[in-house]
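We modelled the chain as a single entity of 590 amino acids. Its sequence is:
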Amino acid sequence: MDNGDRRAETDALMRAGARLRLVHEGGGDDEPATPEELNLRVLLPLMRYLRAEFGQATIDRLARDAGIDEELLRRANAWTSHPCFEAMLAGARKLFDSDQAFMRACTHDMVKVYGPLLLVIRCISVESAYRMMAGTSHLATRISRYEVRASSRTSIRLRYVSTKTESRLMCLSRQAQLRAGPTLYWGMAPAALHESKCLAHGDDACEYTLRWYQPLRWRGPLLGGLLGALPLAIALLLGVTPAPLLAVMAVLLGMASGLAIEQRRLVSDHLQFAEQTNREFDHLVQAHAWAVDEVLALHQRERQWGEQREAALEERAARLDRVVDRLQDIGEPNRDKLRNLSHDINNPLAVLLGIAAHMRRAMTSEDLADTATTLETTVSQLSGLVREIANIASHEPATPFEPARIDVTELTQRMRRQLRATVVARDIRVTVFQTREAPEHIVTLPAMLERVIDNILTNAAKYTERGSIVVEVGGTPGHLLLKVSDTGRGIGPERLEQVLSTGGPDPNPPVGGSHGAGLSIVARLLDGLGGRLEIMSEPGRGTTLWVYVPSDLARAELGPRELPADDSLQGVMERVVRVRAKPTFGGDGS
């Protein structure tokens, strides 16, 4: 295929990707392509190269042009459609001068991509690794599969079948990663690949024959024997005939020297492998210990929060007891006075009622009769007011917490540690980062803010079985913004309406149990901080929360204040929580 045909194919793919973004908000006949056809983890090596060479902005631009939501690229297990995948490859190919450079980028840092799984791969042979790849291809594609036609210790023949018409770029990226398979092992070069069929050329399948070469352990002894025989050959050329025993000893000595060198190299390889294995295990042990520390710290904060709330409740209960005692002390001596006063007032009122009744019976004038009726009504109202005198009560608000200064960078680091500890040993990728818009510090109530963060992070971890959780620490004028996005099961409209109206329990709780009160707790805490909460969720795709916290509690005039008129859960939800509309496919989602 020449450059002109390739450019035409690339432009066609880009237009196809752009068409996928035309989705009607109100529904209609135009539906996007099936989004779950190819897993984006296949692009991880290429994305790592583009990020290192061109920056994250280039990747985001390529994703937008291809019709891929930028949030999908930050997830550990995200899927997209075949046209979007092709358009992403086509956009990336434009950044390279040749197909060879593009193929090298498709295998960039593959060892780092596999992570701890590399330890498992190196425990099996190269042939077994290729067979395992073919058998688990459904984890990366739902439109194609591999078939193993033949294999040996140093070769394998694969057949790739797809239900879609694939471009040459798809084939090149696939070939690059297949060739790089042996490089996952110590001291092995890329495999030699021979292509006999290609879907992009109109064939019914792609067929590849891969050959690799195991390290030759006999090369050292052979070279040593040849070096040992070299002096004998020189002696024969000079006309000197060495003794047979000496000749044999020289060859054997050379082979022994070569074998010793080969064994030393083999031992060195094993030591390097053992060292890397130990490092990986050390990292796992450190991560586990670090996760345990974070969980213990979380429990410590939970205990401190409970102690603070208990102390506040005890103080409030004591204050209420004092108020009740004071009211009783005030009420006892005044009760008789109120009874006597009521009796004294009722006596003239009774006289007035009697006079009004007599006037109404004796007067024939209609106006005077109406006046008497009005007098009776007024006296009845005065009697009711007298009965209400004893029903007066009052109370004073309490302020159990004091504002404090919080460093946002330290807060971000603590959230990162806490979230990683919460999802340790689970198939969830955690990303916590701070933007330039985030304030350097905020002044708020630390205990209440920690409670908000603990609730939103633990809820995200509970409802996400696999995928990713992304936390963005940013800011808006006068506020700290915490954006938490997960790929969990999401919240349906009916359940979300139930939570916002009643805060009732979840009828389908996650593994580990949940009372479904997390959102209502967060809303009440944010109401006390003067903040607000925005939520966007879709079943099967995940949930995103935007938490706004005032950056200066004192400046926001959130000190001691009057209680709101409606302190019910529904009133709090109406003041604090807002539901965001679902964005169109390909939007930024912010």
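As a brief sanity check on the tokenised model: The chain has a mean pLDDT of 77. Residues 404-579 form a domain with the Heat Shock Protein 90 fold (CATH 3.30.565.10).
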